[in-house]
Design goal:
- With 562 residues, the protein is of the alpha/beta class.
- The chain has 17 helices and 34 strands.
- The strands form ten sheets. A five-stranded parallel sheet has the order 5-2-1-9-22. Strands 11-18-12-13-14 form a five-stranded parallel sheet, with helices on one face. Strands 25-26-29-28-27 form a five-stranded antiparallel sheet, sandwiched between helices.
Length: 562
């Protein structure tokens, strides 16, 4: 049997290697259009930034090493430019001309290409992408040659990694993002924390605005934004997203959705003898049912292995699990991570949900170095099923998001998190780990013990309710909502009459710093007959939601006299 794999790196090479381990007799040919068939594309920004000094460390395998270890016939600079699914042949452009190659099984792993938006002047030689080893080497050479100012177009994961890398090299960096905030898959209240960290690194952020043109100059280019802002740059990184590189295969009749190849549960495409894997494949979101590609290395590697099983030993091949999109990025001293569905995906799918905000410490508060993990979870409004989770913090983010990703894969409810037996010692966690605590908060919300209000309801709440701030007097003096009533939670039971008079029959909406004390106050108020709710995530989440408006709105109000 001849297995032809189109494209290397994560999905293609994982499939080829697994197929060889299962079948020593198979002829396995890998066709890679680029120079490198197996490289660490996730490590590219760190070579630009100098943390990975030698570009050679990014090369995981070579055609020679793959031949020696696995007897794979790897052909670089071989681009597939045609497919005849009926004849089971591919047309290949090689350094010595075009040729036909027959196959018994064909695996399509062409990956994705950088999206090139319609920006005038995008053909400037100062514009680079960051998708391949040559891209990273070229960017590094530009920096080493004295580049001083860089503009990064796009503030997704790769864009922010590139921005951080360039800032570490001492460049003046500006990030431009069309969406309303950086890291668009992240919820706005967490993305604001990332924006603050970018600013701490000296990076300028323009969000909610597009680049409209790039004007070429002899010494530098000028990037003009839609709002008229002009930014000089001698280096421009294009990171505005990717699109599946499937044009050849779609033209040959392979079924695609928005350019992504449609496959069944074992990776089979629409033509007999053809499979597909990786960034070019359409996956069904297990939470929302949406069909979209998931351009992540982990799912591609795992799916490649299972596709090889489906080809070589189909009788015992496991179905490919649909990826939930777990991802993490470092930005300066912070990590930002997510898994499952976010608000926009849930809203688009019409799924009713509730959102939880927590700010627990990543390890015991009495142990040196304790810091907050800003945690957000979406749960089913009635069944409490975990739908998505996000986290931002300096430490402990990866641990929590991995546990929550596992919980989503397992179909757990929010209250199941209470019972997870997680490792604890003061340097590593808390007896009530952040994940356990999220379960407790969620269980209270589901059974009605805790009623929440949200930062995006602020205008209505200020109009229709009494805002009760239960932080200490000293905390309240640092900034609070105008016209709010400050009664520390430890004094609330003895001052309920003040609350009743100030409310005048209106609902009471409680807040504190992070949501812990306001939850206690809410229980006191509810049992005293008040219409009460606690602000999800407290002042920390409110400030992040307000973003740059926070300091303007959260002044030092005079206490209300009653």
């Amino acid at each position: 049997m001849r297995i032809v794999v189109v494209g290397g790196v994560a999905g293609g090479m994982s499939c080829a290697a697994r197929a060889r381990r299962l079948d020593e007799a198979a002829e396995i040919v890998v066709l890679e259009r680029g120079e490198y068939v197996s490289f660490a594309n996730c490590g590219l920004p760190y070579h630009v930034g100098g943390e990975i000094e030698d570009a050679g460390r990014l090369l995981l395998q070579t055609p020679e090493s793959l031949r020696a270890a696995l007897d794979l016939d790897v052909r670089v600079r071989h681009e597939v430019i045609g497919l005849d699914a009926d004849a089971r042949t591919v047309t290949v452009r090689t350094p010595s001309g075009e040729s036909l190659l027959a196959y018994d099984a064909l695996v399509l792993a062409p990956g994705a290409r950088a999206v090139r938006p319609p920006i005038a002047g995008l053909d400037s030689p100062r514009v680079r992408t960051l998708r391949t080893v040559p891209d990273a080497v070229a960017l590094r050479e530009r920096v080493d040659a004295g580049a001083r100012r860089a503009v990064v177009l796009g503030a997704g994961f790769i864009g922010l990694e590139a921005a951080e890398a360039l800032a570490l090299r001492g460049l003046e960096v500006t990030v431009v993002e069309l969406a309303g905030h950086v890291l668009p898959p992240l919820e706005a209240e967490l993305a604001h924390l990332v924006t603050q960290e970018l600013r701490r690194l000296g990076i300028t952020v323009h969000a909610g605005v597009a680049a409209s043109s790039i004007t070429h100059g002899p010494l530098e280019d000028v990037v003009t934004l839609a709002d008229g802002t002009r930014i000089g740059a001698d280096l421009i990184v294009l990171s505005t997203g990717v699109r599946p590189a499937t044009e050849v295969f779609e033209a040959a009749g392979i079924a695609c959705v928005d350019g992504a190849i449609v496959v069944d549960g074992h990776g089979r495409a629409s033509a007999p003898g053809v499979w597909a894997v990786g960034d070019a494949v359409a996956s069904t979101d297990p939470v929302t049912g949406a069909v979209r590609p998931v351009p992540l290395a982990g799912p591609a590697n795992r799916a490649g292995r299972l596709v090889a099983d489906a080809i070589v030993r189909p009788e015992c091949a496991r179905p490919i699990p649909q990826p939930i999109g777990t991802a993490i990025v470092r930005v300066g001293g912070l990590a930002a991570a997510l898994t499952g569905a976010n608000r926009s995906a849930l809203d688009a799918a019409g799924i009713a949900y509730r959102t939880l905000h927590l700010h627990p410490n990543q390890h015991a508060g009495y142990f040196p170095g304790a810091g907050q993990v800003h945690l957000l979870l979406h749960i089913g409004a009635t069944d409490g099923r975990l739908l998505g989770a996000q986290a931002v913090g300096a430490d402990g983010v990866d641990k929590r998001i991995d546990v929550l990703a596992t919980a989503i894969r397992a179909g757990l409810r929010i209250d199941d998190l209470i019972d997870l037996d997680l490792a604890y010692a003061p340097p590593y966690g808390q007896a009530k780990d952040a994940v356990n605590l999220a379960g407790m908060v969620g269980a209270n919300v589901l059974d009605g013990t805790l009623r929440l209000w949200y930062a995006d309801e602020l205008d209505r709440v200020r109009r229709d309710a009494l805002v009760l701030d239960v932080r200490s007097t000293a905390e309240f003096a640092t900034g609070g909502l105008p016209e709010s009533l400050n009664i520390p939670h430890t004094e609330l039971r003895s001052r309920l009459t003040e609350v009743r008079e100030a409310a005048g029959g209106r609902p009471v909406r409680v807040l504190c710093a992070s949501g812990v004390r306001s939850a206690i106050a809410h229980r006191v108020l509810t049992q005293a007959g008040f219409d009460s709710a606690s602000l999800s995530g407290g002042m920390l989440t409110l400030r992040a939601t307000l973003g740059d408006r926070a300091d303007e709105l959260l002044t030092r109000p005079e206490p209300v006299l009653v």
